[in-house]
């Protein structure tokens, strides 16, 4: 199983880049992982939010492969604790999912077409975080889930 972390937005900011790199490297001991940063649309600032979500959604859909398992990070999703996230990953592996795509949408979220395509919608927290921090939290939580599955010391329950 491969993991892909997709995020609509600019390159990682320096204040989170080292942490993202650290946890991404650690995840690679368990699964191949790749980041795909989807550049914001050139005219994003001039588009109304609904139009922007539509255009970004079309781009995301065009990048997905038919068999990709899309996990959308969204404030309307289901919350998981660390053990449940680990079980979720194990279930996807047991089902022979080829690629899990974790998608962090744009500044206004994602459009209906992406929401409908999502296989699972995950809410990290009731709090709202900047997209840059969501990238770091995502990579840390996936690493934590992997360490739970291997019964390693990183996670203390």
At a glance:
This protein has helices spanning 14-27, 49-63, 82-94, 112-117, 131-149, and strands spanning 2-8, 33-38, 69-79, 99-104, 120-123. It has 157 residues and is α/β, with parallel strands linked by helices. It has a single domain (2-149), classed as 3-Layer(aba) Sandwich (Alpha/beta knot).
Blueprint (SSEs and pairs):
Elements: E1 2-8, H1 14-27, E2 33-38, H2 49-63, E3 69-79, H3 82-94, E4 99-104, H4 112-117, E5 120-123, H5 131-149
Parallel strand pairs: 1-2, 1-4, 3-4, 3-5
Molecular structure report:
- The chain is α/β, with parallel strands linked by helices and about 160 residues long.
- The chain has a single domain (about 1-150), classed as SPOUT methyltransferase, trefoil knot domain (Alpha/beta knot, 3-Layer(aba) Sandwich).
- It is about 45% helix and about 20% strand.
- It has five helices and five strands; from the N terminus they run βαβαβαβαβα.
- The protein has helices spanning about 15-25, 50-65, 80-95, 110-115, 130-150, and strands spanning about 1-10, 35-40, 70-80, 100-105, 120-125.
- A five-stranded parallel sheet has the order 2-1-4-3-5.
- Helix 3 crosses helix 5.
């Amino acid at each position: 199983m491969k993991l892909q972390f997709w995020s609509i937005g600019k390159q990682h900011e320096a204040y989170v880049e080292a942490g993202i790199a650290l946890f991404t490297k650690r995840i690679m001991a368990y699964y191949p992982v790749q980041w795909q940063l989807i550049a914001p649309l050139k005219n994003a600032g001039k588009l109304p939010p609904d139009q922007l979500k539509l255009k970004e959604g079309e781009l995301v859909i065009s990048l997905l492969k038919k068999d990709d398992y899309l996990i959308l990070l969204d404030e309307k999703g289901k919350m998981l604790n660390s053990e449940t996230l680990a079980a979720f990953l194990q279930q996807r592996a047991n089902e022979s999912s080829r690629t899990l795509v974790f998608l962090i949408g744009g500044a206004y979220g994602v459009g209906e077409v992406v929401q409908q395509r999502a296989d699972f919608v995950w809410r990290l927290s009731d709090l709202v975080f900047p997209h840059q921090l969501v990238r770091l939290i995502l990579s840390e939580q996936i690493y934590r889930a992997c360490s739970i599955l291997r019964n390693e010391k990183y996670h203390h329950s």
